[in-house]
Write a structure and sequence with these properties.
The protein is of the alpha/beta class. The chain contains 23 helices and 21 strands.
Length: 597
């Protein structure tokens, strides 16, 4: 077999069994299982009709649709007619019909009906089959560029790639979201472009489990500002339980409303620094990342309900714990934009957050009178003590200590801008609660580009308020142009640059031990040998180098009280940083061992 044949040969056969009426057995394929899962989830979500234009490449989904007797299947020879028939079903029933066609110009024939559905706000779920990537741009028959084929005339577009069993945990979420976005507050067409490899004919295997009671994977509560009493009662009936937690991320809401709900429910608040909820309060749990690394604690404190407010924190440990908790997860946002990277939200509430929290706080009983919150409080206190003690034993500056000390040094009115990569993680994992911390970060795409300029913009937005930027050396170099003309802008900006001579986050990844050190340095660590103070000096920015851990907090406090732009340059060691993170996590584990008995 040639190399290209080995690379693209299908490896989907899981098992075979005899199929009635056929001489050859039918193989269980990933494509058939994927499509059967989509259709099952759509049926749970209320799908009643499917319109199919015959074709070969669309076989896996066509067969899956035909296998469901509760669905009405409508066959149209002409794709354009099929599309307008699906439009008519949506227009009359106010619910989306699935529209399926094969690849190539067949997909282009749907465009007119898609545009009409977009303009008229008619729900429609458009599925175009496609060739796999290796057959594109090589003159394969019935192959055109179908990516974003319908442009802005869709509510959502997704190409999930060739069905892969490794992604089966996301299949139901994909199907449910497609249905919801077509049927949502602003109805319209959704486009799924679905590439399939041979074999196109197969039997589905075991489907990923769905929600109990045949419910759709995502259920949505949409309020115009406030949820109504019926919606609120339904939500309360599902979330009013003892073992609840609130995960507070960045969003438009008042921390006081969240704290009031937490007090009323007796639930802990696992607070992202950007949430504003990391306040010194009995309900605040700041050290949730190191806490949840303690296996027994994480297991014993699995919640039955999780109220996720705003964006997700950076912690992968938290994300994995939530995913494995089997809890009912309720995502609360003010925007209809999806914020569910784990594909685990069972209920999406789109409404003003403060009134919702206030209304729940008035009605919820939660864990009142139980030790649930006290156990979380005791664990976080032990973790904070272990972190402080461990960091105090290091005389030289360390990245976790810098993050902790910078947050502690913030005064009222000071804004902290934190770079992506390790700084935002160190602030999330190791900083203590603070009444004064206002934390901002570019966590939409999580990039390290433009961080200096972002901090300058924050400072320009209100020149009367001091701004501190915590940034790594690579991100600083990436946006050093943000310093152009900075001394003439009239801003009070303190830049705390943590310089470990390269990309420190990569030292935590498998690449660090999976290849020779020289290759790792070349491809990932990428040392730069640039003097950050020298670079800052070119722009007229004064700088100070900090050599002792105890100097970080006072230096930040002094810089905040001094007008103008300053750079505090802190040298750290990448290898020692990895070891210290392990030491801190171990210290927390031992501290929890002492309390978790």
């Amino acid at each position: 077999m040639y190399e290209h044949e080995r690379r693209f040969a299908p490896a989907e056969v899981v098992a075979v069994e005899a199929h009635p009426g056929q001489d050859r057995p039918m193989a269980v394929t990933t494509a058939a299982t994927f499509c059967a899962t989509l259709v099952d989830e759509w049926a749970r979500s209320g799908l009643t009709d499917a319109v199919v234009a015959p074709g070969s490449r669309s076989t896996p989904l066509a067969v899956a649709l035909a296998a469901r007797p509760e669905l009405r299947l409508h066959i149209f020879h002409d794709e354009r007619s099929a599309a307008f028939a699906a439009l008519g079903i949506g227009l009359a029933s106010k619910r989306p019909a699935v529209l399926l066609c094969t690849s190539g110009t067949a997909a282009a024939e749907l465009h007119a009906a898609v545009v009409e559905a977009h303009q008229a706000e008619v729900p429609m779920l458009v599925c175009t089959a496609d060739r796999p990537p290796e057959l594109r741009d090589v003159a394969a028959p019935q192959t055109i560029d179908q990516a974003g084929l319908f442009g802005s005339a869709v509510r959502w577009y997704c190409d999930p790639g060739v069905p892969d069993d490794a992604m089966r945990s996301a299949w139901r979420s994909l199907a449910s979201r497609a249905m919801w976005d077509a049927w949502g507050p602003r109805p319209g067409p959704v486009h799924l472009n679905l590439p399939f490899r041979d074999p196109l004919v197969g039997e589905p295997g075991v489907l990923p489990a769905g929600r109990e009671g045949g419910r759709a994977w995502h259920q949505s509560v949409v309020g115009e500002g406030r949820v109504d009493e019926e919606q609120l009662s339904g939500l309360l009936a599902r979330v009013d339980t003892e073992r609840g937690v609130i995960v507070a991320g960045h969003g438009s809401y008042s921390p006081q409303s969240v704290r009031q709900l937490a007090v009323a429910a007796g639930w802990p608040v696992l607070a992202d620094p950007r949430s504003g909820c990391r306040l010194p309060a009995p309900t605040t749990v700041a050290a949730f990342d190191p806490l949840l690394r303690h296996r027994a604690f994480a297991t014993d404190h699995r919640p039955s309900v999780v109220l996720r407010i705003g964006a997700a924190p950076a912690s992968k440990v938290l994300a994995d714990w939530l995913a494995g908790s089997d809890a009912l997860q309720v995502q609360v946002t003010t925007s209809a934009a999806w914020a569910d990277p784990g594909h685990s939200a069972a209920v999406r509430v789109i409404a003003d957050i403060d009134p919702l929290c206030d209304a729940l706080a008035e009605r919820i009983t939660g864990a009142t009178g139980t030790p649930w919150l006290a156990r979380w409080r005791r664990a976080d206190d032990a973790a904070q003590s272990a972190l402080a003690t461990t960091l105090a034993a290091h005389a030289e500056p360390t990245e976790p200590a810098v993050a902790r000390d910078v947050v502690a040094a913030l005064g009222p009115g000071t804004r902290l801008v934190v770079s992506s990569s390790m700084p935002i993680r160190d602030v999330e994992w190791f900083s203590a609660p603070s009444a004064d911390a206002v934390v901002l970060a570019n966590r939409g795409a999580n990039g390290i580009d433009g961080v200096v300029s972002t901090a300058v913009g924050v400072a320009l937005a209100d020149p009367t308020r001091p701004v501190v930027l915590l940034i790594g050396d690579v991100a600083f170099l990436h946006d050093s142009n943000g310093l152009l003309g900075i001394t003439g802008r009239g801003v009070n900006l303190t830049i705390v640059a943590v310089d470990n001579g390269g990309g420190g986050i990569f030292s935590f990844l498998p690449q660090a031990t999976a290849m020779p050190a020289e290759r790792f340095e070349q491809l990932f660590a990428t040392p730069h040998d640039v003097s950050l103070p020298g670079l800052a000096g070119i722009h007229g920015v004064e700088s100070w180098s900090i050599d002792k851990a105890e100097e970080v907090g006072p230096a930040v406090a002094r810089a905040i009280d001094t007008s103008g732009v300053q750079l505090l340059h802190v040298r750290t060691d990448r290898a020692a940083n990895v070891a210290l993170h392990a030491e801190l996590n171990q210290a927390v584990l031992l501290a929890i061992d002492a309390t978790h008995r």
